[in-house]
Amino acid sequence: MRYGRKGIxxxxxxxxxxxxxxxxxxxxxxxxxxxxxxxxxVGVTSDDYDKTRGKINNQQSLMxxxxxxxxxxxxxxxxxxxxxxxxxxxxxxxxxxxxxxxxDWEGKFxxxxxxxxxxxxxxxxxxxxxxxxxxxxxxTIGAIGESKLCQKFIREIQYVNGVEYKPCDESxxxxxxxxxxxxPEKHYEDVRRALQAGRHVICESPIAMSIAxxxxxxxxxxxxxxxxxxxxxxxxxxxxSRLLVTAKSGSIGNxxxxxxxxxxxxxxxxxxxxxLSQKQNSICAWGPTAMLPVFQLLGTRYRxxxxxxxxxxxxxxxDGFTKVDFTYDHATASIKVAKAAKAEGELIVAGxxxxxxxxxxxxxxxxxxxxxxxxxxxxxxFYQLDGEGIRYEIVAFAKAIERGKGNYYIDExxxxxxxxxxxxxxxxxxxxx
Length: 433
Ligand code: C2G
Known about the structure:
19 strands, binds [cytidine-5'-phosphate] glycerylphosphoric acid ester, 5-stranded parallel β-sheet
């Protein structure tokens, strides 16, 4: 059946979808939608919008999904769906007559009847992107190390299609990849064994305790065509990625300073009841996260670095509180990390025109603000954050393995720069307070 806008001009039809791994069911939907009018607009969901809808691991990128829709030859126009409520805007903007969607959405879009005709088309039985994804062999990931963090990681694996958890021991038998969260002093050995056994590795940062070690591991991973990835969940949060883009785009002018604070008292390292040898010190537990925005915004070539620390156990070189200052040619940075002190866990990026403020706890935030002298110019940005970023981290790791390409969220230079500071600390190149 065709529907016309008051009987004159051409009839415009619109439909929306993810169109991941485009298949017969999608094509039939598009064919029927096209037949309802003269002009078909297809809205393809952006990855960010899909994230907010709980679809986190499309196999194809937005560009690939758009190309899939274009190749059907059925769409007269392809647009990107980026936000909740966009459908009403699109219907108005493009003067749409018919909104068509599969019957799995029956009733969900009745509210659009106010703006145009809404039609639910019967869904094609027996085929779906989920099934196509599931037919591919699943990537198996094992986990070794501290049980609480392993449990968190294993729980998050369940949300990622195409990946499954399989228990493994230290021989890494029976898994394709392994998550390593042992004591940082053990990382180098564990990662090396895993790579030598031919396993892809995602390891809590720092991956090693010295530059020489991290270089050796990176080299080994390259030789064996394996992925070696730092696990710093913050790097994968949408709000954090957008913050980097905002800061780099010049909207706050030139960056002059980055200040990041990360503290936690949950390990009760202060009260002497704990065996500190089993715990990560402050710089290992928090340093990599705090250094991430510094190196990602200002680069890794600082002119000077100074560590000031409050050691609570000399033998173990265990710091209760540490501050690291970096001097760059045109900027400064400072991180404060602690497991035996508490401070406001915020991130501030200062620029020559304005600044970015992320409230505590900035490392698992879904929100940041861009602030200016003139308050009316301030902007607030909200993004969805599921599973503290861990599930996005797993998606990125699985994609890197599938594509055989490294992790572009935390590149090797940054991994090395983080290790450089950890090494300086280990060698006690610091001032004590
Ligand atoms: N479809 C179908 N038959 C199938 C599979 C999908 O008819 N076997 C239809 C869906 O009903 C939808 C379109 O193909 O109309 C695209 O499906 P998806 O890629 O799964 O996208 P979806 O999550 O349904 O996106 O806000 C609404 C969304 O944009 C719709």
